[in-house]
Amino acid sequence: MAELAYVNGTLSAIESARVPIEDRGYQFGDAVYEFIASYNGTLFCLEEHLDRLERSLRGLDFSPIPRDGIRKAILMLFEKASISRAGIYIQISRGAAPRNHLFPKSTSPQVVMTIREVEEKPAELRKNGAAAITVEDFRWGRCDLKTVQLLPNVLAKQKAIDAGAFDAIFISEGIVREATSSNFSIVSGGGIITHPLNQNILPGITRMVIIDLCKELKIPVHERFFNTEELFRADEAFLTGTVTEVLPIVQVDRRRIGEGRVGPVTQRLYEALRERAGA
Ligand code: PDD
Questions:
Q1: Which residues of the chain have pLDDT under 50?
Q2: Given 117, 141, 175, which residue is the final one in a domain?
Q3: pTM of the model
Q4: Which among 72, 146, 215, 218 is annotated as catalytic?
Q5: What is d(CA 22, CA 94) in angstroms, rounded to the nearest whole number?
């Protein structure tokens, strides 16, 4: 078992992996990424992550990169590292070239990856739920593309931690968007309400799986906008994401959500997700 880096086909220890200083991801944030987790030695939703990666690449007008090549590289790294509960970070930049805003003409994309053991969320948060704060959504207009331009997310997450909370939820014009690295849903009247897919949120793979599980479990799903008022009136609230899985949010801006403890719908969805993932 080894934590490893991959840089354009070459494997090494993570600490010794290097990219050129003129990589466009580094200078312009001109790069996209994915984060994929495995459970018991099997990557969860690999093809769905590859679909979204292709969509992000197209969204930034990258030249097409063969999907088979990316999949092969991911599987090779996963096999070499031999980590049963792994998190694979994949980043593809438009390449390294002398700094110029214009796309470079003859530069190949740079593909870098790391594989590490997944850092599980504290059991205490799963048992008792987590707190969140709300922040104004000051991100760009294409939050549906998974680009590495995450500074607003970084600042908001730090603000949450400094306030003694676990995460921050982006709000724009009163509408509840998503958290800093997870989608966000509420439970009301036994059904879930989640932001519809548009340019203001990331089309989360976990969100998609949860919607599918809701169908199986006969839990109604409403993909529609909801505002902070509805959030504060909700019975339950939860984050969904590759690392957060389904994480209960029991307090927002120091106000209790529902009864202020983990609700039955959230708990059922967490268990169903773990089962689907083969945990
Ligand atoms: N974050 N929304 C945002 C802004 C995210 O960054 C993520 C994922 C999600 C959830 O997507 P998914 O269910 O596909 O993981 C929603 C990854 C894990 C990250 O930044 O590390």
A1: none
A2: 117
A3: 0.98
A4: 146
A5: 11
